[in-house]
Amino acid sequence: MKIASFNINGIKARLPRLKEWLEETRPTVACLQEIKTMDDGFPADEFEAIGYKAIWHGQKSFNGVAILADGVEPLEIKRGLGIDGPKDGEGEQARYLEAEVNGVRICNLYLPNGNPHPGPKFDYKLAWMDKLRARMHEIWAEEIPAVVLGDFNVIPEDKDVWSVKAMQDDALMQPESRDAYARLLGHGWTDAINTLNPRGGVWTYWDYQAGAWQRDHGFRIDHLLLSPELADRMAAAGVDKEYRGREKASDHTPVWVEIADHS
Predict the structure, then answer these.
(1) Where are the residues marked Important for catalytic activity as a site (predicted)?
(2) Of the candidates 241, 224, 239, 215, which has an alpha carbon nearest to the alpha carbon of residue 162?
(3) pLDDT in tens for each of the 263 residues of the chain?
(4) What's the topology of domain 2-259?
(5) Rounded to whole angstroms, how far apart are CA atoms 190 and 3?
């Protein structure tokens, strides 16, 4: 079973690239972030045509998450974490979708960026991470195979960024952000990419500006966190880096983990 995450940065703008990736790599489950579309604008028929069934949680112009599964309907468990956005009266943003696919709990998230720091958006980021940690604790207590994955907007360690100095003032690598991320792992969740690449130097995001892709000035903010029940079955994990270099690509690239069948 291959489970992947891809911040697509606008599903309508990237649809050809997204379908290309799905057909070429054929993940069992594909979690998308920043679909940037209302629910009624989600192109479910396009995915159905290539064998994927989908559930999604959309929002006009911003955010939005979706879960695609190859040949089966994802069974929705939960949408949203019950936390309002940073603006008064804004309500909850479309950032979290949880489902079950083939006996595995899939928790897809698009964590708040938090910039500018300090400020209400950074406070919202930390509050959102607290809500996520509470939900992860509930799932951990169920002792089920689960993966919490997506764009966390956190650079966990210095080894996960091309230049510490360039990003030192960014919300993505503030001590509070890193501490909150470390607390997410506290009950025994496994960061799949980090576990298999302990020296770091693996990027999942390259900005569109300043030739970041061409100069390989990237960092790692897309993560796959496995519960103990799933970590024991991890066979491989990686980053589909080449897709960042294609025409009209997202500024993120897919990350994935392969899970072995029960022995």
Answers:
(1) 222
(2) 215
(3) 999 999 999 999 999 999 999 999 999 999 999 999 999 999 999 999 999 999 999 999 999 999 999 999 999 999 999 999 999 888 999 999 999 999 999 999 999 999 999 999 999 999 999 999 999 999 999 999 999 999 999 999 999 999 999 999 999 999 999 999 999 999 899 999 999 999 999 999 999 998 999 999 999 999 999 999 999 999 999 999 999 999 999 999 999 999 998 75
(4) Deoxyribonuclease I; Chain A (3.60.10)
(5) 15
User: Do the annotations mark residue 151 as ligand-binding?
Assistant: yes
Instruction: Flag whether 179 is marked binding.
Output: no
34 marked as binding residue: yes
Is residue 5 within 8 A of residue 254, CB to CB? The reply is yes
Question: Which residues have C-beta within 8 Å of that of residue 176, sequence separation ≥ 6?
Answer: 122, 126
Question: Is residue 232 a known part of a binding site?
Answer: no
Cα(161)–Cα(163) distance, integer angstroms: 5
Each domain of the chain, given as residue ranges in start order, spans 2-259
Annotation-wise, does 252 bind a ligand?
yes
By DSSP bridging, strand 29-33 and strand 2-7 are parallel
